[in-house]
Amino acid sequence: MEVGERTIPLAKSVARNTLLARVRSYLAPIPLMGWLFGALVAVVLEQTVGLPLALVEQTVGLPLALALGLTGIPGLFGLRIMLTRPALIPSAAAYVLLVYALPTLVVARLSAPLANRLARKLLDRFPLMVSLMVHLALFYATVHLWGGISAYRILFLRFIFISIILTLSLNLVNGYMGEFSCSHPGFMALGAYGASVLTVLLFVNDDVFGAPLLPPALGPFLFPLALIGGGLLAALGALVVAIPSFRTRGDYLAIISLAFMFIVKSVIENLEIIGGPRGFMNQPKWADLPTVFAWTAVCVWTIYNFTRSTIGKAMCAVRDDETAAAAMTINTRRTKMATFLFAAFWAGVAGGLFAHVIGYINPGTFGVYKLSEVLAMVYLGGLNSVVGSIAGALGIQVLIEVLRPLELWKWIAIPVLLIVLMIRRPTGLFAFTEVNIKDLLQPRQTLRRSSVQVPGEER
Amino acid sequence: MPLLQVRNMTHFFGGLRAVHNYDLEIELGQVRGLIGPNGAGKTTIFNLITGIYQPTEGEVVFNGQNLVGLQPYQIAAMGVCRTFQTLRLWRHMTVLDHVKLAHYSKIHYGLLGAFFGTGQRYREEAEIEEMAYNLLEMVGIRRVAEQVVINLPYGVQRRVEMARALASEPQLLLLDEPTAGMNPEEMVEMMNVIRQIRDELGLAIFLIEHRMKVVMDLCDTIQTLDFGEVIAEGTPEEIRSNPRVIDAYLGKEGIA
Q: Which of A28, B3, B128, B156 is close enough to A452 for a disulfide, judged by CB 3.0 to 4.6 Å?
C-alpha cells in the first residue's frame, strides 16, 4: 500500500519532468537570434507591414481582437484590462497566444537552423560587436513595430528604458559597491534640469531664456551633447556627496545622499528662473523611441563592460573587504569615487531623457516617491546583476501599469507584492547572476542533447 | 642596503604603547619569524609596515624609499604584500577574480577602457588572466579557479589568500599566521608552499606564527616580542634555549 501511495506522485513528477525535458529539448536548438526572428514576425503580424499607422483598423491585429470580443488591440498583452474587465481575460489570453506566442514559437523553431548558421557566421567572421549590433537591430525592429501600434505603447517603452538606465546605475552603487545611496532622484533632477536648460537656451524661443542661440535645426544633432552635459552636472553633484561620505564606510553615504536629494529638490523649488515649484516646460520632445533605446543600449553596454573588467571588479572587492582590497594594491578611494560618479552620470542622462520625453518637469517628480520606485526596481531585480536590473525595471514598470486601475490601492498592493517576493526570494530575482553576452549570442547545438544549455542558467 | 629597514619604530594607541623601539632588517631570500604571546604587538607591526597604521615615531624604508605616510595601496604596489590572520577574502568573488584583482596597480587601460572595452583592455585582461592561471597552478588550486571562494574548504581558502598576495608581485611578503586553524596535513602543505615561494621567487618573507614547528623549520632568524619590545633575536636554536623567551612566551616547561 505504501509503495502504491508513493509511486503515484513519483510517476506524476516523472511525467512532468519528461514533459519539461521534451519542451526544453524542443526549444534548445533555438538561438537568441531565432527568438528575435519569431518576435519580429509576431509584431509584423500584429501590424501588417507597410500599412501606415492611419490604416491601423485594417490590420490583422484589430479584426482578430474584435472577433475575440476585445474592444481594441490590447495595449500591454491584455495585462491592463485584467482588473477593469476581468471577463475579457480569456479573450486577451487567446489574443496573446494567437498573435504573439504561437507565431513566435513556430517561426523561432522553423528558423532555428538558419538562425544558428547566421549566428555562427557572425561570431566567427566578425568581432563580437557586429553580432551584437545585428541582434540589437533585430530587437529594436521588434520593439519599434510593437510600439508603433499606439502612442501609449511608445510612451510606456520609453519609460521602461529610462527606468533600466536608472536601475542599472543605482545597482552599481547599492549592489556592486555595497553602499546605500538615496540620491538618485537628485542626480536625475540635476540631469533633467541641466539638459533642459541647455536645449531650451540654445534651441527654443522661450519666455525666460529668450530667442534660441543656435539654429533649432541643429538641435536633434546636438541633443546628445545636452544629455551628456546633464549627466556631467549630475556627476558634479555626486562629487559633492562623495567627498565627505567616502572617507569611511558605513551609513554616512545613506544619510548624506538622502539629504542631498532634498537639497536638490528645494534648491530647484526656489530657483525662479527655471520655474521654481511650478516646473520647467518647453523642452523639445527629442527623446523619441530610437534615441532612448540607443542611450539605453550604450548605458547597458558600458556598465556591463565596467562590471566585468578588473578595474570594475575592484568595487566588489571594496564591498566585500576594503582592508584586503587596499592591501592588494587597489586604490579604494578612487574606485569608490569613479563608480559613484559614473552611476550619477547615467542617472543624469536618464533625467535628461525623461525631461525630453514629456516636455515638462517639476521638482515634485524627483522626490521620495521616485526614490522608492528605483529602490524597488533594484531590489526586485537583484543586486549585482545587469540582467536583474533590467528585469526589475521592467517588472515594477509593468506592475505599476497593471495595477493602475486600483488607483490609491496600488500603493498598498505593490509593497505587499514586494514583501511577498522578499520572503520567497530574499535576494531578488537574479542577484549575483552574470550573463556573458558572448554566450547569449552563441548558436545552439542542434543534435546532442547533453549540451543543452538554457541561457542565463550558467550559474 | 637591506630590502626593508625599520628603525626605532614606536606606536601608541592613545596612552597605550603597543610597539616600542622596534628595529628590523630583512634581505631578499630571507625568511624571518616574529613570535610572541597574544597581544604582544605582532600584528600591529605588520599594520605599521603596510600603512594601515601610521607609526608615532621611527621610519620604515623599503628599497630606499620611506613608506611612512603612504597609503596601504601605494605600499602594496611598491612590493610589500601581506596576508591576514583572519581570512579576508572577497566572499562573492571567484578564485580567479581574487588573483586577477591583485594586478590592479599594473593595469593601464584606465576607466575609459573599462567602460568601452577597448582592444588594449582585452589584451591586458588576457595577459593578467594567463599570469593568474600560472600562479594558481603553482599554488595548486587551478582546478577551483572558477569557484566562488566562500564554497571552498578552509585550507584552500588559505592558499587563495597566498596566491592573491603573490599576484601583486611583492618583493617582501608578510604572512600573518599562515597556518592558523589548519589541520596537520594542511600545515605541512602550507609549509611546502612557503618554501617553494622562497626558493622559486626569491622573495623576502616575514612571518608571524604561533606553531613552533613552523617557525623553527622555516625561519632563518626569529624575533621574540613581548609587550611591544623585542626581547630576543637569533637563530631558531638560540631562541629555543633563550631563558627570557621561555619565561615570557613558551612557559616554564620549555618546548617539546
A: A28
Whether the pTM exceeds 0.90: the reply is no
Interface contact flag, A311 B107, Cβ < 8 Å: yes
User: What ipTM was assigned to the predicted interfaces of this complex?
Assistant: 0.89
Cell of B239: 631562541
DSSP state of A278: G
Grid coordinates in use for A306? 565596467
Q: What is the enclosing helix (H) or strand (E) of A121?
A: helix A112-125
Q: What is the CATH number of domain A151-440?
A: 1.10.3470
Given an 8 Å threshold on Cβ–Cβ distance, is B125 in contact with A310? yes
> DSSP for A165-200?
HHHHHHHIIIIIS------HHHHHHHHHHHHHHHHH
Q: Where are the domains of chain A?
A: 24-105, 151-440
- Compute how many other C-beta atoms are within 10 angstroms of the C-beta atom of residue A357: 22
Nearest residue on chain B to A319, alpha-carbon basis = B90
Over residues B174-229, the pLDDT tens digits come to 999 988 888 898 899 889 989 988 888 889 999 999 888 899 999 999 999 988 99
* A316/B92 Cβ within 8 A: yes
Residues 6+ apart with CB under 8 A from A226: A195, A198, A199, A202, A352
**Residues counted in chain B:** 256
Nearest partner of A342 among A302, A373, A295, A402, judged by Cα: A302
